[in-house]
Specification:
The complex is a heterotrimer of chains A (about 120), B (about 240) and C (about 80). Chain A has about 120 residues and is mainly alpha-helical. Chain A has four helices and no strands. The termini of chain A are far apart. Chain C has about 80 residues and is mainly α. Chain C has one domain. Chain C has three helices and no strands. In chain C, helix 1 packs antiparallel against helix 2. The chains are: A mainly alpha (about 120), B mainly alpha (about 240), C mainly alpha (about 80). At the A-C interface, helix 1, helix 2 and helix 4 of A face helix 1, helix 2 and helix 3 of C.
């Protein structure tokens, strides 16, 4: 197996761990929210890479006649694309919710540094 | 936990996850291979329902119930963010918003020119979601973002004059309700929630793929309203709300 | 698969990995909003090269515009608080 065959999956894992690393060392909650969205991008890359097939076309058929059965297997996997696409949009609104939380924390505690938020410590 | 301890714990956990990821990746079917059983089933099912864009077929027909769940997360996040960003008791909203420096004439011109183009593009992406790449999610985001070219071109006041918040709160609710209504229609007619109740039409033509275009419009409405509401609340907080 | 298509995919993957790392390592959130937007564009190119135009369209509007804009607005509010 060449490195090429695992490269996309490794990039996905890299984004996941890189984003998590950013959250762990973050000194600012807004910075942490952005790092979370990077970690999440890793899942998109993984899903899209799993559905990929060498030389295949997008799962959108042009023309006015349904494609024949042979053409069915000449497209990449639409199921993972559908899941990724809804997640991209929904994740943006969840990011908005987290940013709104960070704004509230800044208002109440006057800081965004997680280490200074002593009253939130468990 | 001190910062140092936290980073050590992270390093240990990340190393473990990293090893597991590499082991998994090595055991996975090779990248780009032709074995995609879900693809085979989904493509056949979408074509049976005369849907040219199989991704839309999956989202708004085959897995429409899942999309309703995603929509609910979206609605919950928008409502939650709106509640969190309301001006608190110790804050007040300025009626007069200090304008930033007026944008360059060239920026204003480009903004005003692009605004109608972007809105038409957004509507087109929603309307043809079952035929070409696009659909309610993408078109909704284009519409919701495109409207804010007005802010770029005319500043906050121009945006406020043309973008009142209440209609989009209604749009958000109506979009979600419309999705559920289509689902209930399926339940009433065929006995299954979100089952297709419309004629399937001819492949590749504008009226085709049954309920898919209808759900595209419902989702487009909800997503566009959601994006506009979120940006409206963030803009208010950034420009208007201040401490009493 | 043509050599050009393969090269585009490899370049896009590398760009995404490098830019993602850059976003994480940017300590100042205001500058992060800019790098995040560029990362969003790279991810869009990646999705296009992986034959996923539907996802690329969503990522273009969300990743390059909406999320960086919200980050900037949230920062502006927080700055005024201090």
């Amino acid at each position: 197996m060449s490195i090429l065959h695992v490269y996309a999956y490794l990039v996905a894992g890299w984004l996941l761990l890189g984003g998590a690393f950013g959250i762990a060392r973050s000194r600012n909650l807004i910075h942490a929210v952005v790092c979370l969205s990077i970690a999440q991008s890793g899942t998109y890359v993984l899903l899209i890479a799993i559905g990929y097939q060498s030389g295949a076309s997008p799962p959108v058929f042009g023309g006015s006649t349904p494609p024949d059965v042979a053409a069915h297997s000449a497209v990449v996997d639409p199921v993972v694309q559908a899941m990724t696409l809804t997640d991209v949009v929904v994740a943006a609104t969840v990011t908005a919710l987290l940013l709104a939380l960070a704004v509230q924390v800044a208002k109440r505690h006057g800081t965004l540094d997680p280490d200074e938020l002593t009253s939130l410590r468990g | 936990m001190t910062r140092r301890v936290r980073l050590i714990v992270f390093a240990a956990a990340a190393a473990a996850v990293g090893v597991l990821l590499v082991v998994t990746v090595v055991g996975m079917p090779p990248f780009g291979n032709a074995f995609h059983p879900y693809r085979d089933v989904a493509v056949a099912a979408a074509i049976a329902h005369q849907t040219a864009n199989v991704v839309s077929g999956v989202n708004y027909d085959l897995r429409a119930f899942d999309t309703l769940g995603e929509e609910t997360i979206l609605l919950g996040s928008v409502v939650g963010a709106a509640v969190l960003l309301r001006p608190g008791r110790e804050e007040r909203e300025r009626t007069e918003v200090p304008e930033d420096e007026p944008p360059l004439q060239a920026v204003r011109l480009v903004g005003y020119l692009l605004l109608p183009v972007t809105l038409v593009l957004g509507l087109d992406v929603v309307a043809h979601g079952h035929l070409t790449p696009g659909g309610g999610f993408q078109g909704g985001v284009v519409l919701g973002t495109g409207l804010h070219l007005l802010y770029l071109a005319g500043g906050f006041r121009a945006l406020e004059r043309l973008r009142a918040v209440p209609p989009f709160e209604v749009g958000e609710a109506v979009g979600t309700a419309a999705f559920v209504a289509v689902g209930i229609a399926g339940l009433a007619v065929t006995g299954s929630f979100l089952a297709n109740v419309l004629p399937l039409g001819t492949f590749g033509s504008m009226p085709s793929s049954g309920i898919v275009p209808l759900l595209n419009v419902a989702v487009g409405m909800e997503v566009a309203s959601g994006v506009i509401l979120l940006l409206a609340h963030f803009l208010d907080q950034a420009l208007r709300v201040e401490r009493r | 698969m043509s050599g050009v298509a393969l090269a585009t995919m490899l370049v896009a993957l590398t760009l995404v990995a490098v830019l993602g790392t850059a976003v994480v390592l940017t300590a100042d959130p205001a500058r992060q909003a800019v790098t995040l937007s560029v990362f969003g564009l790279a991810l869009t190119v990646l999705f296009f090269s992986f034959q996923a135009p539907d996802v690329a369209l969503a990522q273009l509007a969300i990743g390059a515009a909406v999320v960086p804009l919200m980050v900037m607005l949230a920062l502006r509010r927080v700055r005024r608080q201090r």
